[in-house]
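About this split. The held-out portion is used to measure sequence recovery: a designer receives only the structure tokens and must propose an amino acid at every position. Recovery is the fraction of positions where the proposal matches the reference. Here is one held-out target exactly as it appears in the evaluation file.
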């Protein structure tokens, strides 16, 4: 085993060498020759981890998630390293030691089982990178302590629940958001014949048009997210002015329910410029960030949306008063993570990052502290 004075923010940093891993594997196989057959009997991914969280054995179902890596590549690595988690190399000691690992369901489960010998079941969201493309995984993990030939190991079983999470999102969209908007349209339509000759008629017609547009946008947003995740989304790039983008984003939420009692400030460029982008995706992404900002503040608080430019880039900024808790910051772009009480709503910031970085060629980031308050950035190339 080797251990330098390596820094960790969560679990122990120590690990053993490849030779020691091989010795452990041999000892397990000699004492329990059927261990591989036992792992293969699991319906999902199954691993055996040593006390340092390193992979000692795994079943064939794990190989698909390890991107086809062979046994030599996997043995001795930790889960996040084998999956190519985007945070697995942030610390010298690897998976389980970064600040992000504090909020990882897998890391939490392994640590608790190692420390208490308890069986633990939890959900885990991991963002992995394959061929330079980030992908979100949703797992339900099961950890149990097992003893083989007097040695302590963790049996780690993983169930892929991505389909379950996507189903929850669809249920939320179609059983709540879409149903609410459709009910609003029905209510307005029922009132219209009764006020045909009144001064309110034109206002109710405008409300009907707005609600209809909102209904269509909600359905299209979910459709585009599905296409984007499957890699089949088609972009429509054209020249559009920055101020037009800001104006259209303002129109989305200026009179929205979520804006009531709050101050929304849109700052337009004094010297407007044009950029080449997919305006629909950019407006939807900025709109998501703006809605999140408005939902995050209380009455009489402020939200600002503005843009800054230089020779190479255009930066869109959504600013709001308040600071995001650290535990939320560490998970902000994960697909199924949400601060809302209703399950399945954690797709706002995730979809922004997906649209902007994979399809618009830009970058998404944020900062949230007492000095800057909360700011989200969408940065796009000018050309």
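Reference sequence for scoring:
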């Amino acid at each position: 085993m080797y251990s330098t004075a390596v820094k960790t923010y969560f679990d122990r940093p120590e690990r053993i060498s490849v030779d020691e891993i091989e010795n452990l594997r041999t000892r397990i196989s000699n004492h329990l020759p059927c261990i591989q057959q036992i792992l293969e009997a699991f319906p999902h991914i199954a691993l055996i981890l040593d006390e340092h969280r390193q992979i000692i054995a795994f079943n064939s179902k794990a190989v698909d998630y390890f991107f086809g890596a062979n046994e030599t590549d996997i043995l001795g690595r930790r889960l996040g390293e084998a999956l190519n988690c985007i945070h697995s190399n942030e610390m010298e000691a690897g998976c389980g030691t970064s600040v992000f690992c504090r909020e990882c369901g897998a890391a939490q489960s392994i640590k608790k089982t190692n420390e208490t010998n308890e069986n633990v079941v939890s959900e885990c969201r991991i963002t992995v990178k394959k061929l330079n493309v980030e992908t979100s995984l949703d797992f339900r993990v099961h950890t149990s302590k097992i003893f083989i030939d007097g040695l302590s190991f963790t049996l780690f079983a993983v169930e892929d629940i991505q389909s379950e999470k996507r189903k929850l999102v669809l249920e939320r969209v179609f059983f709540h958001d879409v149903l609410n908007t459709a009910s609003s349209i029905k209510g307005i339509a029922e009132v219209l014949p009764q006020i045909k000759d009144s001064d309110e008629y034109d206002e109710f017609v405008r409300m009907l048009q707005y609600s209809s547009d909102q209904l269509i946008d909600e359905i299209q947003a979910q459709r585009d997210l599905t296409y984007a995740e499957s890699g089949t989304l088609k972009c429509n790039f054209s020249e559009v002015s920055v101020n037009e983008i800001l104006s259209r984003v303002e129109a989305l939420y200026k009179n929205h329910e979520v804006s009531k009692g709050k101050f929304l400030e849109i700052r337009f460029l004094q010297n407007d410029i044009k950029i080449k982008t997919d305006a629909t995706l950019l407006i939807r992404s900025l709109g998501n960030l703006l809605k999140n900002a408005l939902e995050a503040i209380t009455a009489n608080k402020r939200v600002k949306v503005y843009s800054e430019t230089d020779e190479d880039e255009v930066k869109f900024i959504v600013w709001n008063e308040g600071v995001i808790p650290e535990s939320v910051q560490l998970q902000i772009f994960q697909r199924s993570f949400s601060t809302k009480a209703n399950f399945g709503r954690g797709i706002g910031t995730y979809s922004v990052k997906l649209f902007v970085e994979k399809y618009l060629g830009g970058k998404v980031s944020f900062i949230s502290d007492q000095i800057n308050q909360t700011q989200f950035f969408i940065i796009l190339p000018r050309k």
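Annotator remark: The mean pLDDT is 89.
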